[in-house]
Every structure is written in structure tokens, then in C-alpha cells.
Amino acid sequence: MGVKHVLVVDDDADMRMLLASFLQMAGWDVCSADSGQEALQIASGSSLDAIMLDTQMPDMDGPQVFRELQKYGKTKGIPCILFSSRIEDLDVDKYLKMGFAGVLPKSFVVGPLVGDISKILGWSV
Questions:
Q1: Which domain range does residue 64 map to?
Q2: Which helix (H) or strand (E) holds 82?
Q3: Which terminus, N or C, of the chain has the lesser number of Cβ atoms within 10 Å?
């Protein structure tokens, strides 16, 4: 397995850095964006293996970013995982039917988080 390239998208700088550091400890190459617009720019110009999208962001929420990604051949096939601090309020089945690879809570521990992401994406850890 080669190094995985993951984009983390969250408007909360602390959450972005925390999640990125956890994924980097797993040996993954991580880049980050603080908005949906920035995520779309990075995704269109990069070779990514996955995108982690926050549910709620000011300019575009995670599902809006996902719908935009689905419009273009270069970004359509990138698996996306939605994450939220209020997962109990989400209709997880709705997001899976939309095409998200998975939905995860923001309340995580590094070991299980990396394992959960790997399991959703079918990656060996």
C-alpha cells in the first residue's frame, strides 16, 4: 500500500489540526482546507485518495461540497467521509444514499478513528 493522500475540510482550525495530526501519525499525507471553496480548489488540483468533510461550515456545508465534487470527472471518484460533532442529529442513511463512503463523529480517539476510516475506505492499516 502506498502513502494515502487525504484532504481534511473543517472551518474549525483546532479540529483541522487535530484530525490532520492523527492521520499523519498513521503515515498518511494530509492537506487541509478551512472552507468548502478551498476544498474544491485543492481537490481539483490534487491527487487525493479521500476527503474528510465537516458537516457544517459557513460558506458551503459538507453535503454541498460533496455534490460539487460529484459534478466533475477528476473529483467524482474521490471517497468522502462526512464527520460531525452532532452525529446523533444526522440522518446517516440519507448521507450514505447520497454517496458518502461513511459518516463519523468528531468525538474520536486516534486508534479507532484511523481504523474506522480505513475500514470505511477498504484500506489496510
A1: 5-121
A2: strand 80-84
A3: N
